[in-house]
Amino acid sequence: MAASSIAVITPVLNGMPFLRDAIESVIAQQYAPLEMIVVDDGSTDGSEAMARGVGICRVLRTPGIGPAAARNAGIRASTSDLLVFLDADDVLGPSLIRSSVEALRHMPDAGFAQACIQNFTTRPDGTMNLFTSAYRFINLGSGVWRRSVFDAVGLFDESLRLCEDLDFVMRCWERDIPKVPVDSLMFYRRHAGNMTRGLKGADCGTLQAYRKRIERIRSGDYDPNRPRRTTWPDYLGLPPQSMDLE
Fold first, then answer.
1. Binning pLDDT at 50, 70 and 90, where does residue 241 land?
2. What's the predicted TM-score (pTM) here?
3. 192 exposed, middle or buried (CB, 10 Å; 0-12, 13-18, 19+)?
4. CATH topology of domain 6-236
5. Structural domain boundaries of the chain?
């Protein structure tokens, strides 16, 4: 049986301090067939040139359209069976792709495999400072997604500059898309430039995402009374007590 093809899609805007780590973590997966699509969304720091110099990378250039639209551009540019969405400042654990592909092979009805997450900062010597235990929560980079999921629920909502991941996972739950958990890790980097650093609740786009759900109920696109395989809190997962830097 031929191996499932994978595209790792990475939107980047001035990500030079971290992008190479992300790319190297993809190379370290030692998985084939695999391509990495770097969607440079208007960088001015040399991110595009650096990515173009790495053989695994295919680079798209977009004019500051935001993370959701950049990811959608990557989806449209790829024909791979499976999709991974790795932010430019995060890192895949070494076995994430292989373990996820294997889990999906054994559970063909699952729309995606979901790994665990650990938050980290970078010490002055460049080593990783892990400051949370492993947890499972919405973070696109911890998932390996079947392309068919996007056929079923649609692409990322480009009207949302924040919480497009929450909105997308909501739509997956509403359509009762099964997921399969895996024990591999994705490492989520916390640093001063995080888009959500210092934002709370509504500032992060949470209210906008839930308003989208209300609109789907009113339009009849989502029936909140229809039984589903799991509850929304169980599907969503649980973040660590604090997402801030320690």
1. low
2. 0.92
3. exposed
4. Spore Coat Polysaccharide Biosynthesis Protein SpsA; Chain A (3.90.550)
5. 6-236
